[in-house]
Amino acid sequence: APTAEAANAPASANASDCEFGRDLVAALRARPRSISPKYFYDAEGSRLFDRICELPEYYPTRTELGILQRCAAELAQLAGPQAEIVEFGAGSLRKVRLLLQAFDAPARYLPIDISGEHLRDAAAVLRREFAGLEVQPIVADYTQRLLLPQGEGGGRRIGFFPGSTLGNFSPEEALSFLRRAAEVLQGGALVLGADLVKDPRVLHAAYNDAQGVTAAFNLNLLARANRELGANFELQGFAHYAFYNAPLQRIEMHLVSRERQAVTVCGERFTVEEGESLHTENSHKFTVDGLRALAMRAGFRPGPVWTDPQRLFSVHWLHA
Ligand code: AVI
Q1: What is the interface pTM, i.e. ipTM, of the complex?
Q2: Which of 55, 206, 284, 296 is least surrounded by Cβ atoms within 10 Å, i.e. has the fewest?
Q3: Where is the Histidine-specific methyltransferase SAM-dependent domain (predicted)?
């Protein structure tokens, strides 16, 4: 017989049905409230992120592309012939293309991504563009332990993790990701992009763009909950709030309630007070030395580092 609790449960949505529902309900119950930034990236969120990368204020994408263009020949030298490139995430065709073009007869490209659709598209484009390159997409969560297929050629295995996505992890998550990466890349290296600590005004502008694309990206989390979980968030009732937390060297993004309001998610009703926040993202910024020290703790031997003339962003070669 159903328990009293089960009998009272709403017929429509059930938090335990999906990870997003479960995590959002847990976030709304907790104090302070926070949720993983991975939930930004549904189709709409990924489209908004692509627009962020083109914004005049969002310097990381442009700057990293410029650095990669300038250091590609040196990366190719370090990698040697017939290297295998393992990309953690497959969101940056433009960036990996620079490596594939510069490397000496790259043998294989293994993009790892949670979205199979994203991977298929990326793989098809690169197969057409690079005849002779074996493209082997892997549908997996690269933050978990990975088993990669054995390399067949004699080349080195080179990991690629651009965009400073490492900065979206907590320090503990970053360390354990790097530890696992060092294991799977043993004998090869990791090419890692890391955004640098800088004038807070530059950072503030990058996450508070004039066109409001970053605000829409942040608010899309609530829109997504309305679409997927049957939640009833009033988007106008929440403000995008992003600031640089200097002691912790990170941009924090929050959604702050403009008024006292009630919301129902997965059949559970929550009250959100005026001024209360849901913490949606951290974007840690690094110093070159700090990043190298972190990489060493994870088992890498730091190699050359490249930056842009304004020292906004850095690209690291880390021997595994
Ligand atoms: C994906 N990641 C590195 C971006 C960042 O800058 O932390 C996500 C982002 N959030 C707001 N704007 C961009």
Answers
A1: 0.99
A2: 296
A3: 21-319
Which mutation among 52, 114, 208 tests ligand 1's pocket best, with the greatest number of atoms within 8 A of CB? 52
The model's pTM is 0.93
Backbone phi and psi for residue 143, each to the nearest 5 degrees, phi listed first:
-85, -10
Helix or strand or coil: residue 122? helix
Strands (E), the chain: 33-34, 84-88, 108-113, 134-135, 138-139, 157-161, 189-195, 238-245, 250-257, 261-265, 268-272, 277-284, 301-307, 313-319
- 283 Cβ closer than 6 Å to some ligand 1 atom: yes
Distance CA 155, CA 100 (A): 14
Q: Which residue has 């949670």 as its token pair?
A: 114
Distances (CA, A) of 316 to 7, 41, 288: 56, 26, 9
Helix (H) or strand (E) holding 78: helix 59-79
Which distant-in-sequence residues (6+ apart) come within 8 Å of 14 by Cβ?
21, 266, 267
Q: How far apart are CA 41 and CA 218, in angstroms?
A: 10
The full DSSP string for 175-243 is HHHHHHHHHHTTTSEEEEEEEBP--HHHHHHHTS-TT-HHHHHHHHHHHHHHHHH-----GGGEEEEEE
How far is ligand 1, taken at its centre, from the CA of residue 12, in Å? 33
Tens digit of each residue's pLDDT (9 = 90 or more) over 258-291:
999 999 999 999 999 999 999 999 999 999 999 9
